[in-house]
Amino acid sequence: MERIGQVNRKTKETDIQASLSIDGTGKSMINTGIGFFNHMLEGFSKHGFFDLNLNCEGDLAVDGHHTVEDCGIVLGTAIKEALGDKVGIKRYGSFVLPMDETLVLCAVDLCGRPYLNYDASFTTERIGYLDTELIREFFYAVSYSAGMNLHIKVLDGGNNHHIAEAMFKAFGKALDEATTIDPRIHEVLSTKGSL
Questions:
Q1: SS3 of 90-140
Q2: Is the pTM of the predicted complex or chain greater than 0.85?
Q3: Which residues in the chain come in under a pLDDT of 50?
């Protein structure tokens, strides 16, 4: 059975259609109207082996905030929908990703309880047309919409592009591990019996 989440979300600020296949090969078609953000989501998809189609028409004439945050809401909702009752998944995943001078740690717990621990800073306000402060907003929206405990920590870094890219790729790798089916897990990986 394919694990796919499909979400359509329309507000006065954004109109988003997305589909996510957990068991993909890393193919993506991304259009958010923000080139660097597209690039980040493509990296998440490629390195997490998720097939992700996402199209967003947002109020970019205002700024990028609604677009980035709402894409996070939609992606988190798609992850939650695709995983269903979470039977058989590893639940936990972590990855430390190097990118030149940068090193980023990401850890995920698909426990159903949202929490974001974000330890990152940038020395520039924008990368391309993406406001760097919106990166935290994106991951916050994903964690709360998916119901995941998400830790992202920049251990070392200097180049802002590398820091952002390593964060998205590390998230993809950690989520790939957490969503992997383990044949030893017959129900859900919790003493409570549900996630």
A1: CCEEEEEEEECCEEEEEEEECCCCCEEEEECCCCCCEECCEECHHHHHHHH
A2: yes
A3: none
